[in-house]
Amino acid sequence: GNSVTQMEGPVTLSEEAFLTINCTYTATGYPSLFWYVQYPGEGLQLLLKATKADDKGSNKGFEATYRKETTSFHLEKGSVQVSDSAVYFCALQIQGAQKLVFGQGTRLTINP
Amino acid sequence: IAGITQAPTSQILAAGRRMTLRCTQDMRHNAMYWYRQDLGLGLRLIHYSNTAGTTGKGEVPDGYSVSRANTDDFPLTLASAVPSQTSVYFCASSVLENTEAFFGQGTRLTVV
Question: Which of A30, B44, B72, B92 is 20 to 30 A off residue B55, Cα-Cα?
Fold first, then answer.
Protein backbone atom coordinates (compact mmCIF):
# COMPACT_ATOMS: atom_id res chain seq x y z
CA GLY A 1 0.00 0.00 0.00
CA ASN A 2 0.86 3.67 0.06
CA SER A 3 2.05 5.28 3.28
CA VAL A 4 4.10 8.16 4.66
CA THR A 5 6.18 8.12 7.82
CA GLN A 6 7.37 11.33 9.42
CA MET A 7 9.83 12.11 12.11
CA GLU A 8 8.27 11.97 15.55
CA GLY A 9 7.53 15.29 17.14
CA PRO A 10 7.27 17.67 18.71
CA VAL A 11 10.41 19.48 17.61
CA THR A 12 11.60 22.56 19.50
CA LEU A 13 14.40 24.75 18.17
CA SER A 14 15.86 28.16 18.80
CA GLU A 15 15.53 30.91 16.24
CA GLU A 16 18.14 30.72 13.43
CA ALA A 17 18.76 27.01 14.03
CA PHE A 18 18.94 24.51 11.16
CA LEU A 19 15.83 22.42 10.65
CA THR A 20 15.40 18.92 9.29
CA ILE A 21 12.12 17.02 9.42
CA ASN A 22 12.46 13.51 8.06
CA CYS A 23 9.89 11.94 5.76
CA THR A 24 9.98 8.53 4.10
CA TYR A 25 7.34 6.92 1.97
CA THR A 26 6.11 3.63 0.57
CA ALA A 27 4.31 3.75 -2.75
CA THR A 28 3.07 1.27 -5.33
CA GLY A 29 3.60 3.66 -8.23
CA TYR A 30 5.53 6.84 -8.91
CA PRO A 31 4.21 9.42 -6.46
CA SER A 32 4.33 13.16 -6.33
CA LEU A 33 5.52 14.35 -2.93
CA PHE A 34 4.40 17.33 -0.89
CA TRP A 35 4.96 19.23 2.28
CA TYR A 36 1.93 20.99 3.73
CA VAL A 37 2.02 23.40 6.66
CA GLN A 38 -0.73 24.08 9.19
CA TYR A 39 -0.46 27.26 11.21
CA PRO A 40 -2.38 27.45 14.50
CA GLY A 41 -6.14 27.55 13.97
CA GLU A 42 -5.89 27.27 10.20
CA GLY A 43 -6.27 24.70 7.48
CA LEU A 44 -3.39 23.13 5.59
CA GLN A 45 -1.46 25.09 2.97
CA LEU A 46 0.86 23.69 0.34
CA LEU A 47 4.46 24.54 1.25
CA LEU A 48 6.34 22.83 -1.57
CA LYS A 49 6.17 19.85 -3.89
CA ALA A 50 8.24 17.64 -6.18
CA THR A 51 6.79 15.49 -8.92
CA LYS A 52 9.69 13.26 -9.96
CA ALA A 53 12.93 11.80 -8.68
CA ASP A 54 15.75 14.30 -7.96
CA ASP A 55 13.38 17.26 -8.16
CA LYS A 56 13.88 19.85 -5.45
CA GLY A 57 10.88 21.75 -4.15
CA SER A 58 11.48 25.07 -2.41
CA ASN A 59 9.46 27.87 -0.86
CA LYS A 60 9.91 30.42 1.95
CA GLY A 61 13.45 29.17 2.59
CA PHE A 62 12.32 25.56 2.94
CA GLU A 63 13.64 22.85 0.63
CA ALA A 64 13.05 19.17 0.06
CA THR A 65 14.58 16.83 -2.52
CA TYR A 66 12.75 13.81 -3.93
CA ARG A 67 15.12 10.87 -3.32
CA LYS A 68 13.84 7.77 -5.03
CA GLU A 69 16.78 5.60 -3.94
CA THR A 70 16.05 6.23 -0.26
CA THR A 71 12.28 6.84 -0.71
CA SER A 72 12.65 10.08 1.21
CA PHE A 73 11.56 13.71 1.03
CA HIS A 74 13.16 15.39 4.03
CA LEU A 75 12.25 19.01 4.76
CA GLU A 76 15.10 21.43 5.53
CA LYS A 77 15.55 25.08 6.35
CA GLY A 78 18.84 26.76 7.07
CA SER A 79 17.65 29.33 9.61
CA VAL A 80 14.23 29.03 11.18
CA GLN A 81 12.12 31.88 12.51
CA VAL A 82 9.51 32.08 15.23
CA SER A 83 6.89 32.47 12.49
CA ASP A 84 7.77 28.97 11.21
CA SER A 85 6.12 27.44 14.27
CA ALA A 86 3.43 25.16 12.86
CA VAL A 87 2.56 21.55 12.14
CA TYR A 88 4.21 20.14 9.03
CA PHE A 89 2.74 17.27 7.03
CA CYS A 90 4.49 15.19 4.42
CA ALA A 91 2.17 13.68 1.81
CA LEU A 92 2.21 11.66 -1.37
CA GLN A 93 -0.09 11.36 -4.33
CA ILE A 94 0.03 8.53 -6.81
CA GLN A 95 0.03 9.59 -10.46
CA GLY A 96 -3.48 9.57 -11.85
CA ALA A 97 -5.14 9.66 -8.43
CA GLN A 98 -6.21 12.84 -6.71
CA LYS A 99 -6.17 11.45 -3.19
CA LEU A 100 -3.38 12.57 -0.88
CA VAL A 101 -1.88 10.22 1.70
CA PHE A 102 -0.54 12.10 4.71
CA GLY A 103 2.02 11.40 7.36
CA GLN A 104 1.10 11.93 11.00
CA GLY A 105 2.43 15.49 11.14
CA THR A 106 5.33 17.05 13.04
CA ARG A 107 4.72 19.94 15.39
CA LEU A 108 7.53 22.50 15.22
CA THR A 109 8.02 25.21 17.84
CA ILE A 110 10.63 27.90 17.38
CA ASN A 111 11.68 29.85 20.47
CA PRO A 112 13.09 33.37 20.20
CA ILE B 1 -12.11 34.76 -3.77
CA ALA B 2 -13.26 32.77 -0.75
CA GLY B 3 -11.73 29.43 -1.76
CA ILE B 4 -13.23 26.74 0.43
CA THR B 5 -15.75 27.53 3.13
CA GLN B 6 -16.66 25.06 5.85
CA ALA B 7 -19.50 25.36 8.33
CA PRO B 8 -19.87 25.22 11.23
CA THR B 9 -16.42 26.08 12.58
CA SER B 10 -17.11 24.06 15.69
CA GLN B 11 -19.92 21.98 17.12
CA ILE B 12 -20.70 19.96 20.22
CA LEU B 13 -23.06 17.13 19.36
CA ALA B 14 -24.90 14.59 21.46
CA ALA B 15 -24.19 10.96 20.61
CA GLY B 16 -26.84 9.47 18.36
CA ARG B 17 -27.69 12.76 16.68
CA ARG B 18 -27.45 13.37 12.97
CA MET B 19 -25.10 16.09 11.74
CA THR B 20 -24.14 17.51 8.35
CA LEU B 21 -20.88 19.36 7.87
CA ARG B 22 -21.04 21.77 4.98
CA CYS B 23 -18.32 22.49 2.43
CA THR B 24 -18.53 24.91 -0.48
CA GLN B 25 -15.84 25.91 -2.95
CA ASP B 26 -15.88 28.66 -5.54
CA MET B 27 -12.83 27.62 -7.55
CA ARG B 28 -14.75 25.28 -9.87
CA HIS B 29 -12.49 22.41 -8.85
CA ASN B 30 -13.63 19.01 -10.01
CA ALA B 31 -12.31 16.96 -7.11
CA MET B 32 -13.29 17.36 -3.46
CA TYR B 33 -12.32 15.48 -0.32
CA TRP B 34 -13.15 15.09 3.33
CA TYR B 35 -10.38 14.33 5.82
CA ARG B 36 -10.39 13.92 9.56
CA GLN B 37 -7.39 15.02 11.61
CA ASP B 38 -6.58 13.21 14.81
CA LEU B 39 -3.54 13.68 17.03
CA GLY B 40 -0.74 11.32 16.07
CA LEU B 41 -2.61 10.01 13.02
CA GLY B 42 -2.29 12.90 10.60
CA LEU B 43 -5.10 13.36 8.11
CA ARG B 44 -7.12 10.38 6.98
CA LEU B 45 -9.36 10.43 3.95
CA ILE B 46 -13.04 9.76 4.67
CA HIS B 47 -14.70 10.19 1.27
CA TYR B 48 -13.85 11.87 -1.99
CA SER B 49 -15.49 12.94 -5.22
CA ASN B 50 -13.63 13.22 -8.51
CA THR B 51 -16.47 15.08 -10.21
CA ALA B 52 -20.06 16.13 -9.62
CA GLY B 53 -22.34 13.11 -9.40
CA THR B 54 -19.65 10.66 -8.27
CA THR B 55 -18.25 9.77 -4.85
CA GLY B 56 -15.83 7.23 -3.46
CA LYS B 57 -14.77 5.79 -0.15
CA GLY B 58 -11.52 6.74 1.47
CA GLU B 59 -9.55 5.16 4.26
CA VAL B 60 -12.11 5.63 7.08
CA PRO B 61 -15.62 5.87 5.53
CA ASP B 62 -17.68 3.99 8.13
CA GLY B 63 -20.32 6.13 9.83
CA TYR B 64 -20.09 8.88 7.21
CA SER B 65 -21.86 9.60 3.94
CA VAL B 66 -21.39 12.25 1.26
CA SER B 67 -23.16 13.57 -1.78
CA ARG B 68 -22.02 15.67 -4.74
CA ALA B 69 -25.06 17.12 -6.42
CA ASN B 70 -23.08 19.93 -8.03
CA THR B 71 -19.49 21.10 -8.48
CA ASP B 72 -19.43 23.54 -5.58
CA ASP B 73 -20.91 21.63 -2.63
CA PHE B 74 -19.73 18.48 -0.87
CA PRO B 75 -21.58 17.92 2.44
CA LEU B 76 -20.48 15.25 4.92
CA THR B 77 -23.19 13.59 7.00
CA LEU B 78 -22.87 11.65 10.24
CA ALA B 79 -26.10 9.65 10.44
CA SER B 80 -25.77 8.78 14.13
CA ALA B 81 -22.76 10.37 15.79
CA VAL B 82 -20.51 8.43 18.15
CA PRO B 83 -17.76 9.74 20.45
CA SER B 84 -15.02 8.25 18.25
CA GLN B 85 -16.07 10.71 15.58
CA THR B 86 -14.78 13.56 17.73
CA SER B 87 -12.18 15.12 15.47
CA VAL B 88 -11.27 18.08 13.30
CA TYR B 89 -12.73 17.71 9.83
CA PHE B 90 -11.16 19.30 6.77
CA CYS B 91 -12.68 19.68 3.37
CA ALA B 92 -10.33 20.08 0.40
CA SER B 93 -10.54 20.45 -3.35
CA SER B 94 -8.25 20.16 -6.36
CA VAL B 95 -8.43 20.64 -10.10
CA LEU B 96 -8.73 17.28 -11.79
CA GLU B 97 -5.30 16.11 -12.96
CA ASN B 98 -3.62 18.85 -10.90
CA THR B 99 -1.89 17.77 -7.76
CA GLU B 100 -2.29 20.66 -5.31
CA ALA B 101 -5.14 20.45 -2.82
CA PHE B 102 -6.70 23.52 -1.22
CA PHE B 103 -8.07 23.13 2.28
CA GLY B 104 -10.83 24.76 4.24
CA GLN B 105 -10.35 26.10 7.76
CA GLY B 106 -11.74 22.98 9.38
CA THR B 107 -14.68 22.02 11.58
CA ARG B 108 -13.99 20.96 15.14
CA LEU B 109 -16.59 18.39 16.14
CA THR B 110 -17.02 17.03 19.65
CA VAL B 111 -19.43 14.14 20.19
CA VAL B 112 -20.46 13.67 23.81
Answer: A30
